[in-house]
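can u do me a favor
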């Protein structure tokens, strides 16, 4: 992920918040544990584990009762990524068709792969799969767990708009912002289907809400955090999008804040260079769709980002559950707002 210039605003937490049952925190923890603890590092350099993650997510969607669950192939040219052969990875999608505004689509998606070992935490090349990569608890088993929990909340309860819950593959380097990136293949697929009314939200690094070392917040990163008005305290989430998504970001942030015990800070990024982005939101911008990331700010908050100690025991599941609960309430409002997109 990469982030540059911004216009920023922040909203106070809501005055009232619906109760968040402890069972939600337990489910989030169990899902993160399965992906980052049970399976561990998962990417095309460890294809058996990547497939284990994809199969498990697919099974979870089906267990929830979704009638439409699909594996969507993403073709990868092996020679471009130091793979021994060409490969096929999969996005996993569960669809809940809308009742009255079904041609308007709300995508909630997060990437399920984790970063292969590289010379440095922020390196994009070369891959060194003979060394251990990150198990990816916060980045991004936390986001996948949020998508799965949101899918559980809506399964069997159609809304006015169509909801698409997606686990994306190949977000991490060296696939990031290339044709092998799963979310880019997915967004392009929506365009090929002729779907023009699409909005997207990606939960990305969503699990850190306690004080922890953040020495990665230095130099350019420290300047970036100051420009973005993202302080080093861990009691907020950021809604980060591009300028073209600013109205979508602002509307969702306002609704989220009315349900959240945590502050939300909004970021609007002018897409002046390719690397202005946070995660899979970038892919949707390329196809003209408003999108933003919901994030705890990743390396600006935690030194475990892209490290071997990004493990399930490091996450804060109760505040994470509060965030997911507020997202569910926000999504219900946005999925049923009668004003057409």
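np, heres the sequence
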């Amino acid at each position: 992920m990469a982030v540059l210039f911004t216009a920023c605003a922040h909203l106070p937490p809501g005055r009232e918040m619906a109760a968040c049952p402890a069972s939600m925190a337990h489910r989030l923890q169990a899902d993160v544990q399965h992906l980052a603890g049970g399976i561990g590092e998962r990417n095309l350099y460890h294809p058996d584990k990547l497939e284990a993650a994809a199969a498990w997510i697919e099974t979870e969607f089906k267990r929830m009762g979704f009638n439409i669950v699909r594996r969507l192939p993403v073709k990868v040219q092996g020679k471009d990524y130091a793979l021994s052969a060409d490969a096929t990875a999969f996005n996993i999608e569960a669809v809940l068709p809308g009742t009255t505004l079904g041609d308007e689509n709300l995508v909630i998606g997060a990437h399920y792969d984790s970063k292969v070992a590289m010379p440095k935490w922020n390196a994009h090349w070369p891959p060194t799969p003979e060394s251990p990569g990150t198990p990816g608890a916060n980045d991004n088993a936390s986001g996948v767990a949020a998508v799965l929990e949101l899918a559980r909340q809506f399964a069997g309860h159609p809304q006015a708009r169509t909801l698409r819950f997606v686990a994306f593959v190949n977000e991490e380097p060296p696939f990031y912002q290339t044709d092998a990136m799963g979310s880019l293949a997915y967004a392009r697929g929506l365009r090929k289907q002729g779907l023009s009314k699409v909005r997207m939200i990606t939960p990305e690094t969503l699990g850190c809400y306690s004080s922890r070392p953040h020495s990665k917040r230095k130099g350019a990163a420290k300047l970036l955090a100051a420009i973005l008005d993202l302080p080093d305290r861990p009691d907020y989430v950021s809604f980060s999008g591009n300028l073209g998504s600013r109205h979508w970001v602002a509307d969702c942030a306002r609704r989220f804040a009315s349900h959240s015990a945590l502050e939300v800070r909004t970021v609007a990024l002018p897409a002046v260079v390719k690397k202005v982005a946070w995660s899979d939101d970038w892919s949707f911008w390329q196809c003209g769709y408003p999108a933003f990331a919901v994030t705890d700010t990743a390396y600006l908050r935690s030194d475990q980002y892209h490290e071997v100690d990004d493990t399930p025991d490091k996450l804060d599941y109760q505040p994470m559950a509060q965030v997911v609960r507020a997202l569910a309430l926000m999504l219900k409002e946005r999925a049923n707002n009668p004003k057409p997109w």
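The chain has one domain: 7-336. hope that helps!!
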